[in-house]
């Protein structure tokens, strides 16, 4: 019953998390596009009011005319929309999903005893510390170097180094799938913390100054803009890390931390292309195709590097009947799918059960290689190839 209810919780939280993430990422991308596409107002009245940019757009049969006031509008409107619940809802639903999927059964999903033989409690504590420590260090870097000359480049280099170190540590300490997800959660936490600690408080201070009739300090807008820009570059790396847990060839690699860094770097480079492309269309910068090419090159290089070799398949026994497969299942799978325990309501200790779940066994153990979980029972490539050959020959159990 517990496993069944956890599956429902996982499904519903994942559904909620995807919906809120779409809302957050969509609004974030839109405002980056908007900022990059604004042109000086053509209307003299708008310029006199302090407007710094405008955009005319058409969508859904109507025309839209957003106008930006970089410091303060001539007067505050009666209704002002705030963009923060998209961020908070995404983080809260994501943390709840992480709790249900990984923390609840940390001994199985977080811990890989071939890497670190620690207790589930210790693994959970260290995993949560990743979220906190990364934010503290990232925030310190932004505050120390963000306002200096060439501060953007310094901050970018130090944050890249910090992400690389965190990725390496996560992959040394945690099961590969959990490590990738943890790095994504770490970056997503920093993104939401940027909104909570800097962007929204800065906007509230600006509004308080306007209401009090005091001069508006532009530093609040500058800091908010800085953190917002960081968030847009974190977005594609975070999405990759979150999606990677479906593809075991990524996180089971011997140098999985390098795979993670390369793919996140590719995502950031491609995001840079799209950000700068808006300015290029208005003649503000040269064509940013180079960034896209660098990102694509990183992806292609990773694909080539991870291309599987055929030695293991060639070494598989020629005889792949049910008797041979049964020996593999008994040694590698019965612990979780036998008479005593049936994880996910799957039992594999009879010919009838194996025939019923043959396709799932093939997909999970041979194609995706997600089973056994974290390869806790050390299923070999030769054994996987044997199961694959048996399934492709018809999965006979007689």
TrEMBL record:
Annotated TM spans: 12-33, 82-104, 124-141, 153-175, 181-200, 257-276, 288-307
Amino-acid biosynthesis in keyword set: no
Keywords: Membrane, Transmembrane, Transmembrane helix
Domain Urate oxidase N-terminal intervals: 3-300
Keyword DNA-binding among record annotations: no
InterPro entries in the cross-refs: Cyt_c-like_dom_sf, Urate_ox_N
Entry protein name: Urate hydroxylase PuuD
Organism: Ramlibacter pallidus
């Amino acid at each position: 019953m517990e496993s069944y209810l956890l599956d429902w919780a996982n499904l519903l939280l994942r559904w909620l998390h995807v919906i809120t993430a779409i809302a957050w990422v969509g609004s974030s991308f839109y405002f980056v596009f908007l900022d990059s596409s604004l042109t000086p107002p053509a209307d003299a009245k708008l310029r006199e009011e302090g407007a710094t940019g405008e955009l005319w757009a058409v969508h859904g049969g109507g025309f839209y005319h957003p106008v930006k006031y970089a410091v303060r509008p001539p007067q505050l409107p009666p209704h002002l929309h705030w963009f923060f619940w998209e961020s908070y809802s995404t983080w809260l639903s994501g943390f709840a999903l992480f709790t249900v999927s990984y923390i609840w059964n940390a001994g199985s999903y977080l811990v890989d005893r071939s890497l670190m033989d620690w207790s589930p409690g210790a693994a959970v504590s260290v995993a949560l510390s990743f979220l906190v420590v990364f934010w503290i260090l990232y925030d310190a870097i932004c505050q120390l170097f963000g306002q200096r000359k060439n501060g953007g480049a310094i901050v970018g280099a130090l944050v890249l180094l910090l992400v690389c170190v965190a990725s390496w540590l996560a992959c040394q300490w945690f099961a590969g799938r959990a490590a990738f997800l943890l790095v994504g959660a770490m970056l997503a936490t920093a993104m939401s913390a940027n909104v909570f600690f800097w962007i929204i408080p800065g906007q509230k201070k600006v509004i308080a100054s306007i209401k009090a009739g005091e001069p508006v300090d532009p530093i609040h807008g500058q800091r908010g803009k800085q953190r917002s820009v960081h968030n847009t570059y974190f977005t594609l790396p975070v999405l990759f890390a979150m999606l990677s847990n479906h593809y075991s060839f990524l996180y089971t690699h011997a140098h999985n931390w390098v795979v993670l860094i390369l793919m996140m770097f590719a995502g950031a480079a491609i995001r840079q292309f799209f950000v700068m492309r808006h300015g290029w269309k208005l003649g503000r910068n040269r064509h940013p195709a180079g960034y896209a090419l660098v990102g694509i090159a990183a992806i292609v290089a990773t694909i080539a590097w991870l291309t599987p070799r055929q030695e293991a398949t060639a070494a598989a026994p020629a005889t792949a009947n049910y008797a041979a497969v049964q020996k593999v299942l008994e040694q590698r799978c019965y612990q979780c799918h036998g008479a005593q325990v049936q994880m996910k309501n799957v039992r594999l200790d009879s010919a009838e059960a194996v025939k019923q779940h043959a396709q799932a066994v093939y997909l999970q153990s041979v194609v995706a290689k997600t089973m056994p979980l974290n390869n806790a029972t050390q299923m070999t490539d030769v054994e996987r190839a044997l199961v694959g050959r048996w399934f492709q020959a018809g999965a006979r159990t007689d």
